[in-house]
Amino acid sequence: MPPAAQRNRKVAIVGVSLSDCGRVDTATPYALHAQAARRALADSGLDRSVVDGFASAGLGALAPVEVAEYLGLRPTWADSTAVGGATWEVMAAHAADAIAAGHARAVLLVYGSTARADIRAGRRTANLSFGARGPLQFEVPYGHTLVAKYAMAARRHMHEYGTTLEQLADIAVQARINAGHNPDAMFREPITVDDVLSGPMIADPFTKLHCCIRSDGGCAVLLAAEEYVPDTAKPPVWVLGSGTAVSHTTMSEWEDFTVSPAAASGRAAFARAGVRPSDIDVAELYDAFTYMTLVTLEDLGFCAKGEGGAFAAKGRLTRDGELPTNTDGGGLSACHPGMRGLFLLVEAVRQLRGEAGERQVRKAGGRLPELAVASGTGGWFCSAGTVVLGRG
Description:
By secondary structure, this protein is an alpha/beta fold. The chain has helices spanning 3-6, 29-44, 65-71, 87-100, 115-120, 146-161, 165-179, 193-197, 262-273, 290-299, 308-311, 330-333, 341-353; strands at residues 11-18, 53-55, 77-79, 106-113, 201-203, 206-207, 217-225, 237-246, 282-285, 371-378, 383-391. Residues 243-391 form the Thiolase C-terminal domain. This is Acetyl-CoA acetyltransferase.
């Protein structure tokens, strides 16, 4: 392809895969990275020699150099962005831009974690915060843990808009309904609103079932330039638009606890894709806590600010609802190994391809969904990345 044409190439996701997920007691994080990468390459049908870009975060002192070496890759384009759970949507945006500009042919995004197994084996303890240096030193001594930050934001939303505990609990119930259709989900047994409300308190107002599960697992996504699409094994899923945003680190610098940076990243992604929230068929949203789903629905424009609780009610987020959301069961029920953002992209692609099995979303007449959005959140609403995808 002539150099001028390479500066405006379309970009597609051509391969996706999960590693073993859930309870994985014998593998290392590196092994999960390798397993997911091999499977994603096989899913794409492309040879590994095409891959000249690599992105990874969260493992090794020199990520992604160490992981690329482990995988036997020598990329000429790399990204090690680390902004929490939103990392993978931000990386996908970077990768798409690089491919479109001709800086790379195909970029592999890979993640793997044995967070659950490490705790069970005593190799690490559960993290209460991200650290106590820099700006965080002014909060950590007072017991302001990671979950407490989300809980405080949820309470503010309840205070300002009348959002109820029952509405938040119903989000967990619907995530479990979706997980019931996913044979790979870690928890599939149905739960009720009463089950959520009566569970042990973690951080007011969050009981245990308001919070994501802790699992092991990994996944991979391969993006490639349009000229490689004819050689792929599966239909392409095109990257139509993306947006990224950062907000705050310390809670005192967060201007409004009821607004996440997805308000900015989503607005940019939809505008660049040339679509509206009402056009979206499937939404994959970061859900470390039930409040994250609610506020992201609002900030992406699926409903007005303050109406998230009512919007998410009556089964609207289930596979057969008006806006199927977190169709694999999400971090609340399916898997959450640490930074879940890449899993959102995998599930969105599978839904658009029609590969989701029992949990497959169908439009009127049995048609496959045409548009999906994946929106990741990092830190305690510190960052956001939103990607709009379209079926080829």
